[in-house]
Amino acid sequence: MEEQKNQNDSKNDLDSALDNQQQKQLKSKKSFWWVLIGVVLFLIIATVISVNVWNSQNLNQEPKNLENIISETSNKEIIQTQDEPQIHTTIEKITKKILYKTDNNLILYTPSTTEKNIILSSNDILDFDLSKDQEFIVYTLKEGGFEGNSDIYLKNIASGDIVRLTEKNNMASFNPIIFPDNSKIAYVRRIYNPTTKKLSDGEIWTINVDGDAESSKKLFGSNDEFFIKESDLDKIIDENGKWTGDYLCITQEEIDSSKIGIRSISSDGAIMNYWQKRWAPECSGLWETPRFSEINESDFFTEKFRQQNTFNLDMQAWDQEKLNWQPEKIFWLDDGGFVLEQSAPAPIAGNSIYYFDEKQNKQWEIFDSFKQEARKYDTQILIDDIIKKDNGHFIIAYSAYKRLEDTKYFVDEFNFGDKVDIANLNNKNYFAIEKLNDHNDQIYNVEFLDDNYLIYSKQLEKDSYGLYLYNITKNKEQEIMKTNSVPEFKI
Fold it and tell me: Could you tell me if 53 and 47 are in contact, meaning their C-beta atoms sit under 8 angstroms apart?
C-alpha cells in the first residue's frame, strides 16, 4: 500500500512539475507578444513624431511641382508655379525686390525667399514703375473713349490704396517714372483730336504723387501739336501716278507713334534723360535720339563738357579733325558723377565709355575705340550697367561685340583708372552669350540688383523668354520665370 502511495505521490509531483513548466511556457509566449506589441507601438509613435518634426522644419519651404497654388497673405497673393528653381540661402542678404510683368499680373519677387506676390491683376496694364524705397508702384491702364487712350494710377503696396493720377479726358497718359525722392511722377501726355482721330506727338509732364491736378507741369515737348508733319513726308507714287497710301522711309506705325519718351531721372531728381524721334540716316525711318536736360529745361551738358568730349580721328581723309562724341546712354551715380556711353557721328564707326565727376570733368577712360585699337581687334564694347562700391572701386557689366563672332557679356570689378582689356577678352569668363546667326538667344536689360547680383532677360527660343538672376561670385545663373514675350521688370 505504502509503495502504491509513493507511486501516486511521485505521479502527482510529476504532474505538478509539468503544469508548472506549461505555465512558464505560456507566460513566456505572452511576454513575447507583449514585447512585440510594444516595439510596434514604439515604431509608430517614433514615425509620427519624426513626420511632425520634419513638417515643422519645412513649413516655410516652397513645395515643388504645384500647379498655380495661390494663397492670400495680407492684401497679396503668393504664387508658386510648377518646377520653379530653388534659390540658395546665400541670396538672403539681398534686400531689394523685383517687380515684373507676366501675363496680366504685376508680381513683386523677393529673391531671399523666392516669394512672388501679385500686386496687380488686369488685362489692361501697359507699363509700370517701382519706387526706390519699393513702397509703391505706378502703372498705366488702357482706357475707353478713343483709340490709344490710357491713364496712370499709383498703388501703395502695403495698404493696397490706389490713387488715380490722371483724369478721364481727351489726353492719353503713359510711361510713368517715379522721381527718386517719391515726390512726383514724370509721364508722357498725348492729346487726342476728335476731328482727325489722331494723337499728338507727345509731351513730358510731371504731377505730384497725391494726384493734385494743380501740380501738373509741362517739361519737354514740341510747341506744335506735331513736330514731324505728314505734309513733310515723301509719298510713294504707283506707276499710274497715284499715291499708294505709304510714305518713303517711314511706316504708318511710326507716324502714329509717340515721338517722345522718358528713360531715367538722376539720383538728385534734377536731370532727365529722355528721347525724341528724329529722321534717321540712309532712309531708315525714325530713331530715338537721346536728350539730357535739367528739369528747368536747360541743357544738362555744359560748354566745359563739350570742349572735353571730343576725339581726333587719325585718318588722312579726316585730316585729324576734332570731332564730337554723341552721348547715347547715361548711368547716374550717387556722388553726382555719371558714366556715358557715346558713339561717333555717322558714318564713322566707333564708341567710347567715359566717367565724368559731378562738375562734368572727364576723369576716366573706361573704353575708347580709337585709343584702344578697337579696329585692330574688330571689337566694340557696350556698357549695360555700372555700380560704385566705393571711391576707388566699380563693378561694370558690359558686352563685347565682334564682327562675325558671338557677342559675349562680362561683369568685372574695376579700380578707378582701369580700362577694358580688349586684347584678352577671349580668355575671360562671360555670364551670357548671343550666338552668331542665332536670333533666339538674345540678352535684354542687364541691371545690377546689388554688388553681387545681376538681373536680365534672355530669349531661349522662338516665343520663349526667361527672367534670370546671376550670382557674380558663384558664376551661377538662376531662373525666376518664363514667359512668351520679353520680360519687363523694375528694381
Answer: no
Rounded to whole angstroms, how far apart are CA atoms 14 and 19?
9
Q: pLDDT tens digits for 73-130?
A: 333 333 333 333 333 334 556 789 999 999 899 999 999 999 999 999 999 999 999 9
Q: Is the backbone peptide bond immediately before 327 cis, with ω within 30 degrees of 0?
A: no
User: What residues are paired with 99 via a beta bridge?
Assistant: 108, 490
Grid cell 519718351 in the structure block, residue? 261
- 192-229 pLDDT tens trace: 999 999 999 999 999 999 999 899 999 998 655 556 66
Residue with C-alpha cell 491713364? 151
Largest CA distance in the chain: 155
Which three cell numbers mark 432? 551670357
* Residue 295: how many other CB atoms lie within 10 Å: 19
| Cell (9 digits) for 16 | 505538478
Task: State the DSSP H helix or E strand holding residue 2, giving kind and residue range, or none if neither.
Answer: helix 2-57
Query: 328: part of which helix (H) or strand (E)?
Result: strand 326-332
65 conformational bin, left if phi > 0, alpha if psi -120 to 50, beta if neither: left
Neighbours of 349 (CB within 10 A): 11
Closest CA to 216 of 229, 228, 207: 207
Rounded Cα distance between 213 and 165, Å, is: 8
Q: In Å, how far are 54, 56, 65, 111, 334 from 51, measured between CA atoms? A: 5, 9, 20, 29, 52
**In sequence order, which ranges of 123-263 are alpha helices (DSSP H)?**
252-256
| Closest residue by Cα to residue 342 from 358, 360, 355, 357 | 355
**Residue 67, SS3 per DSSP:** coil
Q: How far apart are CA 386 and CA 380, in angstroms?
A: 17
- The pTM for the full model equals 0.78
- Where are the domains positioned within the chain? 122-300
Give all strands (DSSP E) within 19-178, no chain letters: 69-73, 76-80, 98-102, 105-110, 115-121, 125-130, 136-142, 150-156, 162-164, 171-178
- Determine the topology of domain 122-300 in CATH: Lipocalin (2.40.128)
Q: Which residues of 176-187 are buried (b: 16+ CB within 10 A; e: fewer)?
A: bbbbbeeebbbb
